[in-house]
């Protein structure tokens, strides 16, 4: 069974993430979406909220599992016999950042491969920070986040 883990902070999930999950679910037998803490970022949504939003947005995609844990990604992967990391690439800035992470994970782990999917052009400008900023300023986020979770995201950000 070909399993891939798709890690990120997902604060919150966007249409771009959902596109990678959908496409990944067609290329792998199972996609495990891992909600992790990036210690460099201050989060808005709690981990439980992020997991719940992803669960709602991916409803109906049978081979997707959503998890969260603390600690190193490669440790979780080794314990659970997963060797593939799936990531989306939007632009050359992502590439620089992802190249570093992929190489560190390769050094830390054993036989870890990172596989990249190029984001669809319409998603290449979306990020979780962009969603939070647009929403906070009263903009329309319907083109940026999955429709199933738009109102929950708005409520959290706008109060
Ligand atoms: N579509 C839309 N947006 C996307 C995207 C896509 N396909 N891919 C990435 N993004 C955005 C995210 O929304 C995020 O935006 P933000 O900065 O506004 O929040 C940004 O790109 C970066 O996302 P991502 O690549 O998921 O990185 P991250 O910083 O959210 O998460 C971890 C990084 C959590 C995966 C990484 O720190 C990790 O693995 N931590 C676990 C501990 C560990 O093992 N550390 C060593 C790692 S080398």
UniProtKB/TrEMBL annotation:
Tell me what reaction this enzyme catalyses.
(R)-4'-phosphopantetheine + ATP + H(+) = 3'-dephospho-CoA + diphosphate
Gene3D superfamilies assigned: HUPs
Gene Ontology CC: cytoplasm
List the cofactors.
Answer: Mg(2+)
Intracellular or extracellular location(s): Cytoplasm
Tell me which residues bind substrate.
9, 41, 73, 87
Alphabetically ordered keywords of this record: ATP-binding, Coenzyme A biosynthesis, Cytoplasm, Magnesium, Nucleotide-binding, Nucleotidyltransferase, Transferase
Q: Which InterPro entries match?
A: Cyt_trans-like, PPAT, Rossmann-like_a/b/a_fold
Q: Which residues bind ATP?
A: 9-10, 17, 88-90, 98, 123-129
**Could you provide one GO biological process annotation from this protein's UniProt record?**
coenzyme A biosynthetic process
- Name the family: Belongs to the bacterial CoaD family.
HAMAP family linked to this entry: PPAT_bact
Q: How does it assemble?
A: Homohexamer.
The record's function comment reads:
Reversibly transfers an adenylyl group from ATP to 4'-phosphopantetheine, yielding dephospho-CoA (dPCoA) and pyrophosphate.
Q: What is this protein called?
A: Phosphopantetheine adenylyltransferase
- The source organism is Clostridium collagenovorans DSM 3089
Give the gene symbol. coaD
